[in-house]
Design goal:
2 domains, five-stranded parallel β-sheet, alpha/beta, homodimer, FAD/NAD(P)-binding domain, four-stranded parallel β-sheet, 12 helices, about 450 residues
Chain lengths: ~450, ~450
Amino acid sequence: MSEKNRNVVIVGAGFGGLFAAQRLARVRGMHVTLIDKNNYHTFLPLLYQVASAGLEPEAIAYPLRGIFRRRRNITTVLAECTAVDPDQRIVHTDGLSYAYDYLILAPGSKTAYYGVPGAEEHSYSLKTLEEAIRLRNHLLSCFEMASLMPGNKVPEAMLRIAVVGSGATGVEYAGALAELIRSPLARDFPELMSLNPSVMLVDGQDKPLSAFSDPLRDYTAQRLAAMGVKLRMGSAVAEVTCEGVRLKNGEFVPAHTVVWTAGIRGEDLEQSLTAVPGIHLGRGGRIQVQPTLQLAMHPEIHIVGDLSLPEFQSPPQVAPNAIQQGTHAAENILLMEKGRAPRAFAYHDKGSMVTIGRSSAVVQLGKRSFTGFLAWVVWLFVHLMYLIGFRNRIIVLVNWAWDYFFSERAVRLILPRDKSVTCGCMAQDIPGTEGPKAKTP
Amino acid sequence: MSEKNRNVVIVGAGFGGLFAAQRLARVRGMHVTLIDKNNYHTFLPLLYQVASAGLEPEAIAYPLRGIFRRRRNITTVLAECTAVDPDQRIVHTDGLSYAYDYLILAPGSKTAYYGVPGAEEHSYSLKTLEEAIRLRNHLLSCFEMASLMPGNKVPEAMLRIAVVGSGATGVEYAGALAELIRSPLARDFPELMSLNPSVMLVDGQDKPLSAFSDPLRDYTAQRLAAMGVKLRMGSAVAEVTCEGVRLKNGEFVPAHTVVWTAGIRGEDLEQSLTAVPGIHLGRGGRIQVQPTLQLAMHPEIHIVGDLSLPEFQSPPQVAPNAIQQGTHAAENILLMEKGRAPRAFAYHDKGSMVTIGRSSAVVQLGKRSFTGFLAWVVWLFVHLMYLIGFRNRIIVLVNWAWDYFFSERAVRLILPRDKSVTCGCMAQDIPGTEGPKAKTP
């Protein structure tokens, strides 16, 4: 079978792994094994909308076997990578093991807590569909529980949400939450509105969106404030507790729900890569690679996406970078197969955009930038185009239309109703978080 | 506050409770408290489509607060009823307690196993969204696991599904599964098709759909067979094990997945109703009530829906019956308020319909009946109309169109990926059901 003489194993079916696989699809003589712990690809840029009851999780997930059905040289494997053996050139998983000639590692990133005490235990993170569903269920449960208590017995923190981190995810989620509370929840729980449920955006920066130009940052701060988001900028978080967030300046921000969007670090591959010599973790837990995205000691191993830190560069950990790196690694493999030298990767910045809320967003394209309704429409359009699956696009569009015309978030469901789904530490603290029990006074 | 001088408490927001509440909406002098353990109403007639990867669960759930937002005299409460105190006229929940002048009990039904050994432990049931999601995840996991094994190592039972019970749910689910396997899964897992994944419909009856006329039953049996469903009729189930189903005639049907649709009984209110004198459980665990749906000893307590067994009648435990009974109980309460006598309930049979598969269904309207494409379109239309929420109708329609035109089931997602979600007893038996591990041979 000369058709299958070269095995490429790809770990991770996020943007990096997916685009690498797509580049290698139908290439003669290449067999690709795509390993992921889920049987679907997740469109992470819209994850915050799942966590704010605007989209059903199924709308931003697409089955991997559906994507690669007609690509005969691609096998998808549902498994978790447990170890890489670079000498034997084998990837071990919790299922089978896979031999490779080339390996593309694209496992993505996880939430970074920078050692802030309590942050990992007492805050929600927003990196997987499961986490987004859990956060949505928790938020809605807080309102349901509060509605069963006499108004003066509702703890101050119960209907307060602190979003830590004012990068793209923090801004988008804080904006989405402010709109969720202002309109759909205000109509669902009119009796709770006198308690001033609110969203705080907390960051050590003095303005949100540090990667953007100053006018855009000012616009963002102003729009968020107008939407009711309370900006607590200029003091970093010193500690997270069950009752809220303590700032470095000593101030305490009460919040029953703390969402941590303040940082990411390369997905934990230490354990699986221990056997690989010359692994060097750089900034943000990323693995230092050659400018070609290869490991210096093992040029058959390519690292792409959020985990990758190419020498002399520091591309942003965003979807376009993962897409470009995934495609680049695949192309380098094809070059190497032809006996040619792999090329250095260069991130091509096509621009950045962040939505703030209804009819407002910021778009930066090099030195040009714009805001407002036009920026918002561009944001919607670009996200819809990159979403995988035409059905998913229609479903998302229907939900967006509902939100736009009726100020409605259709997915205000506590589903699955499952004790494991409700909120960790908080369950012990506020009575009734496991199922909406109210304290009988 | 003379506006709130009469309290009606409704337990359960299925069809019965929902229509009772809607009938009492905006009635002056009535305050309604609607208690449910979920914050949404579930459209159960389409549950089997969630369990066969055709619909996202959110498409058939609608938030209760969304339904009753503009009904100022209706309060929705997220809680589980734990006890009824008929002397004090109080409903106790796992949260607060609620005093009533009138009580409508509409808790629905649960799966009945008729004491068949192993049935409860080793089979999946199909009564809640959580169960439907768990079943879908389990089915897809079986295929993913099998795809990691060498063909000759896949246990015979692994890709076999036994649906026990040939009533409407059993027929609809068996048909949906046959189509799921025949087209979307055959394209996802071409390598597994030589193992003949298959669906068996098991029942002691000699033909499916015992409530329908003979020609419709023959048509159904013939259509199911044509779709690849193996009919194992004429012998009831004697035992369910991890490996399959043992029939009363001694035959063993291997099936790693057993779905129990063979019966329902009134939801367990024994515990909560122990204090109520004169409670008499009739056929199918239903509570015997007066022809007016009232409890004989407590005429302020009305029992509607699947739990209700009106004297001298035995209406079918279906959605139209619950809707009619819910509305009827509400109207009786309004009559009683006016000092008039409550009326006896009479079930109005508007007809029954069951879908079998693409372009085929059976519809029975009194003595008239029809089958085929027209019946199927009528079925689609009626279900779409009764579904609550215009957005949900669009989402369902999009999914149906996808299925019809592309033979595609979009929700082939193992989500949430959660150990508690995978399959009870089966997890211990087939290695790797907790996460798709494959046995390394």
